Amino acid sequence: MVYCGKPSKGCQMCRTRRIKCDETKPTCNQCAKSRRQCPGYKDEFDLVFRNETQATERRARRGSKKALIQKTEKSESPTGGITVSPVFSNSIKSPIEQTVIPSLNMPIEHQANCHFVSNFVLVPKEGGTRGFMDFVIPLLNQDPHNHLQHAFDACSIALLNNRGGTGGKLADKAIYEYTKALNGTNAALRNPEMQLADSTLAAVLLLGLFESITAKQIGMLNWGSHTEGAIQLVKARGKKQLKNTVGLPLFIAVRTQMIIHSLTSGTTPVMGEEWWINDAVRDVTAAKCHRLLIKTGELRAEVTRLMNSMPRTPDNMEIMLDMIRKLQTVDQELVSWMRNVPEEWRFQTIAWEDHVPNGDYSKAEVFPGRIDMYQDFYISSVWNTSRTARLVLASLVVRCAAWVCTPVDYRTTPEYATAARTCVDTITDIIASVPCNLGWHLRNKHRIRKMTPPSSFSSLNPNLGFADNPKKKTCEFACGEEQSVKSLAGYFMTWPLVCLNSQDYTTDAQRAWIQGRLSYIGDELGVRHAHTLKQVQVRMPSMLIRRDGLMANPLGPAYDYMHMMTSVRRRSRGYEVGDSSVQFAPQLPPALNAGVFVGQQQQQQLSMMSGGVGVSPLQHVEAMHKERFEQHRAELLARAAGGQNAGEGTKWIAQRWLVV
User: Fold this and answer.
1) Are residues 38 and 101 in the same domain?
2) What is the 3-state secondary structure (H, E, C) of 550-602?
3) Does 16 lie in the same domain as 103?
4) Which end of the chain is less congested by CB atoms within 10 angstroms, N or C?
5) Global pTM?
6) How far apart are CA 448 and CA 100, in angstroms?
7) Which DSSP category does 51 fall into?
8) What tens digit of pLDDT does each residue of 18-69 get?
């Protein structure tokens, strides 16, 4: 409070008009004569003292902006040599104004929390249905001292450490919070009252997000475990969880993680599409897409099962042809979904780019071609997930066609030609969505205004940088400036970009540009998961087709011939085919004589390994083919992981994708 001296006691109207007030109450005569409405008189205390709190805050904020600019120009900060990157300096703000005030000496945990909320928590506006992690803040307000708080702090500090240019000085603190969150979550899972609580499920989801932010090698193995754990929790909680405002977004968040987990690992989605979709609709358009994505995951798991168990017979070929028809049906349903989305879900081409600086695609912000704009990050992510599902379906169709037409080259089939056209167009569409998600439009508004009609320009959402019409805005970040590059956009774009990187149909120039964008997401947006995924060298569908050949016939045609001859001779002598007590070696044809495969010394070594017991040629050939299968399997995985020296996380991802 500031003392203002002896003030005038006149009414506010007379004070504004600078005339003498007669101070008649309740209204003065000056206002009555001029036929004005008298606003009345202020309290004497308010006249003597003025509240300067807001003015002080404004001055502090102005000073903080200057201090923050100076801080970014220095290589070290006065608090221990921590530098701030340009991207981070424009995005770290306080909970209300998203402004860091150095004079207030805000604790690092609070800075990290503010930064995380302004980059990852997307909240639907009143009447809106689209959001991401919007359940976190209400749950933290209920109990700010539980394992959920530690999981939230772990993610926040890890993101600040990655984006803030702190030189890794907060990494240990993030791991400390992660360990406390993990211990608290495990204790909650053992507690019958806490294991089904909303906070426990939210903590598991945040622990999975922590793995994506940090991308430690051991963490890459844990992401799948956290996702599977969340799925089991949702299953145990049942449909009653959908009846409260926090339970429904939690359920949908787990459903989204389950879909990605199913498409990458080839595992069957738990419970089926009806259980996941019925009574769990927040956004009708997104729910329709999720239903088709779950169908895609089910079909991928079924194709993998058939490839592993079905011999090539005329009847089985009909089964595989029927599978191709099922895959094509789901693909047509996805195309129909894309054509019939509501107007607000449609994207718009806002610019074209044909220039690559210095010819280096890995450093280019835009790949030559069109640039598309979406209403918000959520809509863009659903579109791109549906496109990656089409890539998966096309790969499955080609795999089935290759299985049916073998030994003919599958690239001569009409299914391959159709899949190639679909994948090339889909790759172009996903690439066109990347620049605006990663902030290109924030630096090129002048180019967009020249090319975009005013009516279309005003309808675009500020979450992607344009908002002349606030009524069109259906979701927003919980705090902070909307027109800044968000880590959530990088998190959403990682999976589609990795799928493009793994496609046979992606050109070398496109692959170089995609890897450059993944590096940008990992370095500048703090989602280090992108660095690990960039190293994966899986190629689809070619590697999957090679994998199918290994799994369908791991012992080779020679073993099949000998096994058939053994069965025929056993039947001729009255033995059952499955009688393991009979040791019989068939007469080998000249081309398959045991001498071709093994020398006398190898036979002696094999005999010594079996304890001196004689080994038949059939058993020896089987052992040789098994060894060859393991060698080919190891070579395939090493190639998919990017070499023998690849990290454990990269090897794990390659093995999960190839399901070998």
Assistant:
1) no
2) HHHCCCHHHHHHHHHHHHHHHHHCCCCCCCCCCCCCCCCCHHHCHHHHCCHHH
3) no
4) N
5) 0.70
6) 32
7) -
8) 888 888 887 888 888 888 888 887 765 455 444 444 555 555 555 545 544 4
